Amino acid sequence: MNDKFTIHLKIAGGTYPIRIERGEEERYRKAATMVDEGLAHYMELYRGSELNRENFLALVAFRFAFSFLSLDESQGPEMINRSVRALIHDIEKYLEEKK
């Protein structure tokens, strides 16, 4: 069963249609909010500078990439284990449904 649908996320002043799993909607909306909050933070922090919206979005992207790498380094093995277990579960579920 395909439980996907399209949501329209407003991010940094634009609207983007994204096809997602139904159970992931809250996470997607929270991520969009985090981007907008990061953008507002950098626009306030550097108010009056010559930086433009694209520069601020680059700073937001950098902050998320840095946070991801920091998380990856601190939780790498456990995160990999969880991902592998989830994949095994999904594969087993798929194989059961195909019987």
What does this structure look like?
With 99 residues, this protein is α+β, with helices and mostly antiparallel strands. The chain has one domain (4-98). 68% of the residues lie in helices and 16% in strands. It has helices spanning 25-45, 53-98, and strands at residues 4-11, 14-21. Strands 1-2 form a two-stranded antiparallel ribbon. Strand 1 (4-11) and strand 2 (14-21) form a beta hairpin. The longest helix has 46 residues, at 53-98. The two termini are 15 Å apart. The model has no long low-confidence stretch (mean pLDDT 86).
Radius of gyration over C-alpha positions, nearest whole angstrom: 18 Å
Mean pLDDT comes to 86
Number of helices: 2
Residues in helix, %: 55-70%
Helix and strand content put the structural class at: alpha+beta
Total domain modules:
1
Assembly level: single chain
Q: How far apart are the termini?
A: 15 Å
Sequence stretches where pLDDT stays below 50 over 5 or more residues: none
Please tally the β strands and state the result: 2
Largest sheet: 2 strands, antiparallel
Q: Going across the major beta sheet, what is the strand order?
A: 1-2
Name the beta content range. Answer: 15-25%
In N-to-C order, the SSE pattern is EEHH
What overall form do the CA principal axes indicate? flat
